[in-house]
Each structure stands twice: as structure tokens, then as C-alpha cells.
């Protein structure tokens, strides 16, 4: 049966090529409201593949899964009718340079699998390198002081000159400055916005966010046109921490998103660094919080250089030898 959706052409499930049908189903299921990584895995495990889940799922068996509610179960059941829309959307996204990497693909970042529930897929604009997983995360406030912004820019430049990928969340402020610093030094950077890749907002440094993909990649586990959400920002922070070899908090308020990123990094056994400040204010209370709980202090750019070498140096060497 053919289904017409506003804004899309007429496509039937039979039009989906066998080689990409599972990918279409994965994307549709992963982007369904209420289906997070843990529930996605439950559904996929219960049916073997996402294609089988969407074809054969019934309401009562779905509701027997531990993490699913009635509203989400009904949304999953509706996916049978919505597959043509998702296939067409993927084709259109591909024309804009956005692709999909699934957790079983060779180019899926293996570092993310250290998380308890890694994203089952990522939307990607740009190109991932294996060495990106041995990069340094630089994170911080969305409204930093000029001192904090300068520290992010220069630290990222130093990392890039040593061949270290700079990883951050593409938020305004410290994150965006770190991405810009890496690019201005001719290096690579990987950005995890807290939105879908079709809704990434511009920043002071990037009026056209997609240009960041020329020097690395934009990655997002969220539906392509999802707007910013608080929960999405926290999930994004976990990905930043998992992808990097170490986390450097440049400037953060107490219990801010950057502090959360650092905590995730610690839970994964990764080193955490925080910029020390002679004069502390609200915008750097998070730094003091981290330093008091054992983070390594960065007091000068010589410390930054040592951090980069300790965090990224041996990782790059191991990849080259592998």
C-alpha cells in the first residue's frame, strides 16, 4: 500500500532496497519519541532486527518489555506506516551531506561503547578518523569571561598543532571557541550539538555551523530536526566525555554542564583537568568544585602542553602502530 505524507513523494515499503531496509528501520525506531538507547536495544534484542520489530511487533508483547509505556508502544506500532517517510527523509538528508553511522558499522566510534547505553546510531556531517577517539574534550560555560574564551581558543590551537583532535559540544561560548581554535590552527575537531543536525544554531564563531564538517565532523544521536532540549544536552555531554581521552574544563558554573561532563569522564576512568583561577567568581565555581574533588589543575599554557601530551600522545602512537 502506498502512503502520501506532506512534503514527501509517494513511496511504498517494497521500494526500500533490501540492503538499506534495516538502516531505515533503525533510524525510524531510534528517532521515535520515548525510545532511548536502552529501550532501542531491548526491542532490537526481542525481535532480532529493527526491521523484524517494525514488521511483526504487537502491542501486548511490546508492553511486556520493562522500559516501554503504552504511548511509546503505540508510536512503535505506527512505524509500519511511516517507513516510506523515513526512507525519503534519509535520501533528502544525504543530498545535504548528512549520513548515518550505526553501532555495528566499522566507522562507528568504538569509544562511545564504553557508555552503559551508547547511541544505536549517529547522524554525521563530515568525516570521522580513528584518531578522533584519542582527542581532548574542552568544555565550559556558554557565557564565559574573555579570559575563559581566550584560554579555550589558545588551548585548542596548541592541541591541534600537536595533531590532537579537539572534541566539544558545539554550544555557545567555550565549546564553540575550542572548535574554532582547533580549526584556525589547521587541526581537526569533532562537535556534538545538543540538537539534530538540521537544527544546529549558529554561534559567535560559526554563523554557518555545517562548515565545521570541513575540518572534522558534526555528530548527533538525535532526530535530524530536533530542537534543543535539557535532557538532550546532558546526553550530549556524556558522548563528549566518552569520545575523548581526557576532559579539560575551561570555565564552568557550579554543577554546570561541563562539570557533569567531567563526572562522566571520571566514571569512565578518564583524567579530568580544570583551569585554575586566581580570582574565582560564579563563572568559575565549577572549576574550583572539580579541583577540590581531585581534578588536575591547569595554571599556565605549559600545563596545557603537558596535558595534551599526556592525554593524547600515546594514543596517537598506538593507532599508528596498530
Structure notes:
By secondary structure, this protein is α/β, with parallel strands linked by helices. The protein has 2 domains: 13-95, DNA polymerase, domain 1; 130-321, Rossmann fold, CATH 3.40.50.450. Helices cover 44% and strands 12% of the residues. It has 12 helices and 9 strands. It has helices at residues 18-30, 37-47, 50-56, 59-63, 70-77, 79-95, 146-161, 174-184, 230-243, 257-267, 285-292, 301-321; strands at residues 98-102, 121-126, 136-140, 166-168, 189-191, 216-220, 246-251, 272-275, 296-298. Strands 1-2-6-5-4-3-7-8-9 form a 9-stranded mixed β-sheet, with helices on both faces. Strand 8 (272-275), helix 11 and strand 9 form a beta-alpha-beta unit. 49% of the residues are buried.
Which short descriptors sum up this protein?
DNA polymerase, domain 1; disordered C terminus; 9 strands; 322 residues; 2 domains; 44% helix; elongated; alpha/beta; Rossmann fold
Q: How large is the count of helical segments?
A: 12
Low-confidence stretches: 1-19, 315-322
* Largest pleated sheet: 9 strands, mixed
Overall domain count:
2
Secondary-structure element order, as H and E? HHHHHHEEEHEHEEHEHEHEH
Could you tell me the mean pLDDT?
A: 90
Structural class determined from secondary elements: alpha/beta
Percent in helix: 40-55%
The CA-CA distance between the termini, in Å, is: 50 Å
CATH architecture of the largest domain: 3-Layer(aba) Sandwich
CATH third-level topology of the largest domain: Rossmann fold
Rg over C-alpha atoms, rounded to the nearest angstrom: 21 Å
Tell me, briefly, the overall form.
Answer: elongated
Number of strands: 9
User: What percent strand?
Assistant: 5-15%
Q: Under the CATH scheme, which class of the largest domain?
A: Alpha Beta
Strand order of the largest sheet: 1-2-6-5-4-3-7-8-9
